[in-house]
Amino acid sequence: MKNSVEWVRSVLTERLSAVSVEVVDESAAHAGHREAPRPGEVSHLSVTVVSPLFTGRTLLERHRLVQEALGEAFAAGLHALRLRTLAPGEPND
Description:
Blueprint: H1 5-15, E1 20-25, E2 44-50, H2 59-69, H3 71-75, E3 80-86
Parallel strand pairs: 2-3
Antiparallel strand pairs: 1-2
């Protein structure tokens, strides 16, 4: 399923050569909203990605890389994405 937690984790790991991907489904906090997901789908995610591809890139460039990697998920119903993008060695406070 193109907007499941497992699919998102897998895609980001593969497409961004990520060394760490944490995905938290926050969809339940938005139940009742117009964009609420169907059973088994997610609409709101919080994602932390650590990737060497982020080294030397601005925050905007990092977020664009993630959004491009997840284009299929957005097309399948992903509505909101909270991102924390880090290069290896950057603190994850």
